[in-house]
Write a structure and sequence with these properties.
This is Precorrin-3B synthase. The protein is α+β, with helices and mostly antiparallel strands. Helix content is 27%, strand content 21%. The protein is built from 13 helices and 20 strands.
Length: 477
């Protein structure tokens, strides 16, 4: 590994990692959601040398390094910055919370929209105006396939869509704001960016006011709800020329979210701009990533460039621009089912799970192995979420079945673990049944037997088990 470069003006303490049961967790936001082959190799090396040897693909299209020792944190940040995966300016890094639709295609305007938004956020006047923006404030930039990204948390969604026949330009832009029952339409990209910054500036102003009063800064949806309740109207935003609020009547924006894309390879008329490959439970070994990146490094597209990897919010990687032959799949290790999911019918696509115990200090039971054991019991079209606690970090949206770990005490006083079963809900919701953790591990078929009983039409319902969190602790949907 090359020596860690020293970043001028860089303060490691300004970019705090997350502490976990297996060390520090460092979240990496690849610019525009893309990794070069060299950056992928560097990430794999960091995970192997300084971390647990595993990289996690998150639902926010980030890559997480786990198990980083505290005394190696600053060196890891220096290396990330040196290969272009971390901004040396902590403020710029905190503003770069943009999820870009990984299925963008050349010419659809989506990537150019994200680039324009990022450039605007990095302007000094914008950085000053957005001081105090909530830490988890997020952007999403997408195109016609935005329904597949409906589950990605975002305060402002900036959509670049094909223009109508009467339009002079090739695109139009719509802004969907969390908590706003109106559509903000813009006829030009500069107008769309200016409108988006105006909304974010208002959010930052409201958050600063709340902080000054000792209140939680809140998020866009909550701030809008509070403002409308107090003033019975929308805020007086200073929208630019070419941008206006419209009724949210377009059925395309009211339709339910589309299912997550399935793994697949690109054909002559394939739906993806490359090969979409999943990682079991979003966890990818450093060795698997290294093997793939080495093949990409030696591959060239039509323009003579090495293909990039796009990070998706579906815990998959999209390998750009190549129709993979069976020999190439084997060379890159993509045929190894222990590391990759390339079959749309793979049962592991029907489960999601957090790190669980002992990797997470808040988890009350192991989750990863259990989720993989139960995957074959989940019917096609259904989703199982195994959560180590009531936070539900792996999935904030409802799942068909959620198993929430909870602590208990046996009759002899020894501590035990069980799983509360939530139907069509999240890890925070009220459960309908309880299953012993040891019984599930010893007999995975018990799960399908109990779930079949829960979903039957029998008149007797099991006793409800209340969520361990009070209602006001639940996140807004």
């Amino acid at each position: 590994m090359t020596p860690a470069p020293q970043i001028k003006g860089w303060c490691p303490g300004a970019w705090q990692p997350m502490a976990s049961g297996d060390g520090l967790v460092v979240r990496v936001r690849p610019p525009q959601g893309r990794l070069s082959a060299g950056q992928a190799l560097q990430l794999a090396e960091l995970a192997r040398v300084h971390g647990s040897g595993v990289l996690e693909l998150s639902s926010r299209a980030n890559v997480q390094l786990r198990g980083i020792a505290p005394d190696r944190h600053a060196a890891v940040l220096d290396i990330l910055a040196g290969c272009g995966l971390l901004d040396a300016d902590a403020r710029r890094e905190s503003l770069r919370t943009i999820v870009l639709d990984p299925l963008w295609q050349p010419g659809d305007g989506v990537r150019e929209t994200a680039q324009a938004l990022e450039a605007a956020l990095f302007q000094p006047e914008a950085q000053a105006a957005l001081q105090g923006l909530p830490a988890k404030f997020g952007w999403l930039v997408a195109g016609r396939g935005h329904r597949a990204l409906a589950g990605v948390p975002a305060d402002i969604r900036l959509l670049c869509l094909p223009a109508g026949r009467a339009a002079d330009t090739g695109h139009r832009w719509h802004l969907l704001v969390q908590g706003l029952p109106r559509l903000l339409a813009a006829s030009t990209l500069p107008a769309a960016i200016a409108a988006a910054l105006e909304l974010a500036r208002w959010c930052a102003d409201q958050s600063r006011t709340r902080k000054a009063k000792g209140l939680h800064p809140g998020r866009m949806a909550g701030l809008l709800a509070q403002y409308q309740a107090a003033h019975h109207r929308l805020p007086d935003w200073q929208l630019p020329a070419g941008a206006s609020l419209q009724a949210l009547e377009d059925a395309a924006f009211c339709m339910p979210s589309a299912p997550d894309p399935a793994p697949g390879r690109q054909g002559p008329d394939g739906p993806y701009p490359g090969l979409l490959a999943g990682a079991p439970l979003g966890r990818l070994s450093a060795n698997a990533l290294s093997r793939l990146a080495r093949v990409l490094r030696d591959t060239r597209d039509r323009d003579g460039q090495a293909p990039h990897l796009r990070i998706t919010p579906w815990r998959m990687l999209l390998i750009e621009g190549r129709a993979w032959s069976p020999a190439a799949l084997r060379q890159a290790g993509l045929d190894d089912a222990r590391e990759w999911i390339t079959d749309a019918g793979d049962a592991r696509l029907r489960v999601c799970a957090c790190t669980g115990a002992p990797g997470c200090s808040q988890a009350l039971a192991p989750t990863l192995d259990l989720a993989l054991q139960l995957a074959p019991q989940v019917p096609p079209g259904a989703l199982l979420h195994v959560s180590g606690c009531a936070k539900g970090c792996a999935r904030q949206r409802p799942a068909d079945i959620t198993l929430r770990a909870q602590a208990g005490t046996a009759a002899d006083g020894t501590p035990t673990a069980s799983f509360a079963v939530v139907q069509n809900g999240t890890a925070r919701d009220v459960a309908q049944q309880e299953l012993e953790a040891c019984a599930l591990r010893d007999n995975p078929r018990l799960f399908s037997e109990k779930i079949e009983w829960l979903t039957s039409t029998k008149p007797m319902a099991p006793k409800s088990i209340a969520s361990p969190l009070p209602p006001y602790a639940a996140k807004p949907t």
